[in-house]
Amino acid sequence: MPTILVGIPASPGIVVGPAHLLRWEVPEVPERSIGTREVPAEIARVHDAFASAIERLQHVRKRALEHAGPAEAAIFDVQISIIQDADLTNRVESSIRRGFSAEGAFDLVMFDLRDHFGRSPHAMMRERVDDLCDVQIRVLSILLGLPDHDPVDLPKGANAILITHDLTPSLTVQLDRECIVGIATDAGTRTSHVAILARSLGLPAVVGLLSATTRIQSGDRVILDGAAGTLMVRPNAAELAAAAQRSHRERQTHDELALIAGMESITADGARIVLRANVDLPDEVALAATSGAEGVGLMRTEFLVVGRTTMPDENEQYEAYAKVIKAFDGKPVIIRTFDIGGDKLPVGGYPHEPNPFLGWRAIRMCLDEPELFKTQLRALLRAAVHGDVRIMLPLIITVDEVRQARFLLEESARDLVARGVEHRADIPLGVMIETPAACITADALAPEVAFFSIGTNDLVQYTLAVDRGNASLASRFTPLHPAVLRLIYRTQLVGAASGIDVSVCGEMASEPLMAYALIGLGIRQLSVSAMSVPLVKRIVRGIDTTRAAEAAMAALEAGTAHAAEALLRAGLDAELPGLLGG
Question: What is the pLDDT of residue 348?
Fold first, then answer.
């Protein structure tokens, strides 16, 4: 009988293929002492392992250069330099002479280095912790004779489904979509980085499987259903046939929705809903521009940082922003400044924190690193000459943060004037509403900004005190909780009273039931994944805002998320029968 693993739906689509198991974690090292006579052989083993690891990294670097670019490939230059460091070699050899085995000595030294670098007050040293961890995994795997699971060696057309605990930046830059057709992870939730990445790449994905890496072997045939959140291991002929039928139905639905893309986004009772697209990666621009979206409601800029060891310069950023702006030919493009932190980390480029979602991230980091921030702001001001650009600040808590950011924006404009560089200085500045604090003090923020954009991923996390990246808490991550709905409603009311636009750009807006709730709460601008634009437009065109408002107001007064969901589901089912069940 097939084994069915149930996780969290992350990115829709049904794919069948061989599993490619990637266990990228520091292996357990057995205790083993050696005698004096064994020392030379153990030292030789270390040198051989170092040579093999460097050879392997050079191969990985070459593949990353081909598929991701020189900046991303530089990750592996750093790791090669770590292995070649004479001090590392001397410390490992010294430990071997004290009676440790080759793997034991190397593991001990690397543990000490990671601890030392992680505690350093100097950012340059803290930046090396992730690289040290990758080197530790690679060399120990060689010393312990463990299989090499790098995803870069899959042949073209392998149609493999990647099974791993989680995707780190150094693994992400190695992904080759000509080899990988789906992703399944033990960790993660629908709003974690790996889920957003999978949707951006158009790869079906299931996350939060908890134990997939211990229950599946490389080569096992699997069926991944990204919409249902299931991974079926070793399916029989009947299951394969059923999967083919479901895949066919999905394609039919996709074709039907594509016809809706060019239609107007107006409800049955004549209310206009602005639908824009979220853009996470440059590769998404063409899809987003033809999805029926009226511009970009959220362009995430972390792709410029995640998976590399250096920050992008002004020209590189300018080119990336200009590409998206030009593709939308005068339609609004809202670009969020760097939201680095939480689960979106550069390789080794961020201090390790026990609570990263509550730590030094987003606007906090940008304001504390003004030169880094001003580089981005100058690039945005330059790119704005190509269209309707609006800048959005993430994780705003206080009015002071907005004022500091505006000062740096004005300073950046003066820098460009002094250099004689063409730019636009009259860019609207808005903020993301992502915390209860921002919702409650929205009336104080409103006079300072041109628009609000509600980021539901973090708003749910902070309101419910549920880590959005913790698969064990996924059932408690409930965006339809009355507390979340009330905060969204309050923000909408403040925006309307202040005469500023209020949109929702989090993953919540892409879900049919949640999009229905948001429209019922009075939200008239939604930004969703490009793939979701036609589906949300279908919902918009099939509902009446008065009936949606009745369901949403009832949900606000519900006692639980389950009760709120039931009320909203009943409302949407009455207007679009069968939509949710399908």
Answer: 45
